[in-house]
Amino acid sequence: MNEDQKDKKSVEGGGRRISINLFWFIIIMLTAVIATAVVTALSLEAGSEKAVNVGTDTRSEFAKLYNVYDTITSEYYTDVDRNALIESSIEGMVEGLDDPYSEYMNKDETAEFQESVTGDFEGIGAEVMQEGSKIIITSPMKGSPAEEAGLEPGDQIVGVDGESTEGMTTHEAVQLIRGEKGTDVVLSIVRGEGEPMDITVTRDTIHIESVTYEVIDDVAHISVNRFQEGTTKEFEDSLNRAAEEEVEDVIIDFRYNPGGLLDEAVSMISQFVEKGQTALYLEDNSGERTEIVTENEANPSTEDMNVYILINEGSASASEVFTGAMNDLNEDVTIAGTRSFGKGVVQRTQEFGDNSMLKYTNTKWLTPEGNWIHEEGITPDIELVNPDYYRVDMLSEEEVYAEGQTNETVTSIKVALDTLGYEISDFNTTFTPELTTAVMNFQSEQGLEQTGDVTGETSTALMSELRQYINENDAQLSYLIDYINGEYSEEEIEQRASENAEHIEIERPEPEEDGEGQSEESSEESAEEGSTEEDSSPSEGQDAPEEESSEEQDAE
After folding, report:
1. Are β-strands 219-224 and 249-253 bridged in parallel, bridged antiparallel, or unpaired?
2. Stretch 88-98: mean pLDDT, rounded?
3. CATH architecture designation of domain 211-383
4. CB atoms < 10 A from the CB of 28, how many?
5. Active-site residue numbers?
6. Does the pLDDT at position 536 exceed 60?
7. How far apart are the first and last CA of the chain?
8. Contact predicate 402/316, CB 8 Å
9. Distance CA 452, CA 437 (A)
10. CA of residue 512 relative to chain centroid, distance
11. Helices 433-445 and 408-419: crossing angle, nearest 10°?
12. How far apart are CA 549 and CA 467, in angstroms?
């Protein structure tokens, strides 16, 4: 054996021989040991700004975050939930955007969000509302488990599966009532003056239709409450029905529509304009614009229709996309109501492996003529403000209002009673003898003790009667129909609406501070052009402001 053969090691494997010189083998090993020692020393010296390697990302801007995480997980006086720390740090990061339309949703919140996109959820199928401290069923949905179980409008829910609803909000009660398809929920119900009774309801999958259709005084009224999967099909069916019934005047009602899926709005625009027309522009943070065009041929049913769009301060996002496009593309369209909300930005969603989701604002949108309506809204051609009775203060059962008092709520009481037919001659803030008489007359007709004071059951009854009146008398819709039918000119109908709104100040909600609302929908969407969404409704702080004096939502 020669010297070269003595200084080599041989490795055999799979029929292949690899030879390594012994001298260089030793040098390589020593170099590796020294390099490891140097890296370790440098890491220890960095001490105060430890960087944890997350995957392959060691960006310095996360050093403080990692340091806080390491400190808490290693030195906090008791065990900590590491997942909770990570979740809360993500939530905090999104909150740092100070954007009411961006949010991080955990697994459960994501599931609720997805329900809002499809309009499907699992529950009993009944609308409920909060009336004072009571949870009341306002309407079982047709063909729903609630209807089949015998629940009726006006039923008070006093318990769910043995748990009292006393002190609960509508949202809290809804969360108990909803549940997995095929499971039972026991509702304790009080009907009229009767004793509580238990009704067992088997939950099922409930679909909320986003479009309703009716004809009033020869005018088709198509109400679109949100843009979810399938809204365009429902909308098209309504338009076709109007054409079959030879109804030429059509009102498209977007009041309190918080938005939803952007692609549904574009498809709905396609019902009225030719294929290839600009529906809107999307503009990113570099100022680059992307044109979004209609992809379908116009619906022949709409060719001879006179279109009116009804909006208010709760019309936002995708409903503004539709209204803005129709305003720019069709000079014959008339917009009526009050100035819309003004949401000119678009959100995208990104789902993660644990079924959580990030919804974030990624572009702003502009009308076909390049107008950005953000925080400005769309101004109607015909201004139709709602009467005073839509803006009365919500009365609490605990508060007492009596003769001699002076405050703004007294004006609300006067407006409510006058609306219900108890004549009031002045609407100042003083509780006058005239008001006492009106209250006693109301109490007499309601079978209540005639004290002349507004408190307790009197407050609840007054709010209930007013809500029912509002449900049966849609002022803005009536104004517009009267105008369409030629009973009033544009100037006359605006004046009429204005005269009925003289006593309670109209306050427009600020887009930056949407009132927190509860809706069983909460909004918005999925991404691509199908993952681009235009809404927020729902998410907290994004529900459209409500004018009615009671909280109402779909419960299931």
Report:
1. parallel
2. 95
3. Alpha-Beta Complex (3.90)
4. 11
5. 317, 328, 343
6. no
7. 88
8. no
9. 7
10. 15
11. 50
12. 7
CB-neighbour burial class of residue 344 (10 A; exposed 0-12, middle 13-18, buried 19+):
buried
Question: Residue-wise over 44-60: b if at least 16 C-beta within 10 A, else e?
Answer: eeeeeeebeeeeeeeee
Q: Is the dihedral of CA 313, 243, 234, 295 positive or negative?
A: negative
Rounded to whole angstroms, the Cα distance separating 404 from 268 reads 55
Tokens at residue 403, please?
């003769």
In the chain, domain spans: 123-206, 211-383, 388-500
Superfamily of structural domain 123-206: PDZ domain (2.30.42.10)
The residues, ordered by sequence, that sit 6+ positions from 319 with a Cβ below 8 Å of its Cβ are: 224, 227, 254, 257, 258, 259, 265, 311, 340
Q: Do 123-206 and 388-500 have matching folds? A: no
pLDDT over 70 (residue 394):
yes
Give CA separation, 472 vs 254, 465, 477, 478, 500, in Å. 18, 11, 11, 11, 17
Distance of alpha carbon 556 from alpha carbon 553, whole angstroms:
10
> What contacts 244, CB < 8 A, 6 or more positions away?
none
pTM of the model: 0.77
Distance CA 167, CA 197 (A): 20
Pair 333, 250: CB distance under 8 Å? no
Q: Which amino acid appears at position 530 of this protein?
A: G
CATH code given to domain 388-500: 1.10.101.10
- Kindly state the percentage of the chain with pLDDT values over 70: 81
Rounded Cα distance, 492 and 483, in Å: 9
| Pairing mode of beta strands 260-261, 532-534 | antiparallel
Contact 365, 342 (CB under 8 A): no
Among 216-220, 338-342, 390-394, the minimum mean pLDDT is found in 390-394
Where are any strands of DSSP class E within 31-110?
A: 103-105
Which residues fall within 8 angstroms of residue 326, CB to CB, at 6 or more apart? 269, 272, 307, 309, 333
DSSP 428-484: SSB--HHHHHHHHHHHHHTT----S-B-HHHHHHHHHHHHHHHHH--HHHHHHHHHH
Q: Which of 380, 345, 103 is nearest to 254 (CA)?
A: 380
Residue 35: pLDDT band with limits 50, 70, 90: low
Q: What is the CA radius of gyration of the chain?
A: 31
Instruction: Report in angstroms the alpha-carbon separations of 67 from 47, 52, 53, 60, 90.
Output: 10, 8, 12, 11, 16
Q: Looking at the predicted structure, is the pLDDT value of residue 138 above 50? A: yes
Which of 25-39, 200-214, 520-534 has maximum average pLDDT? 200-214
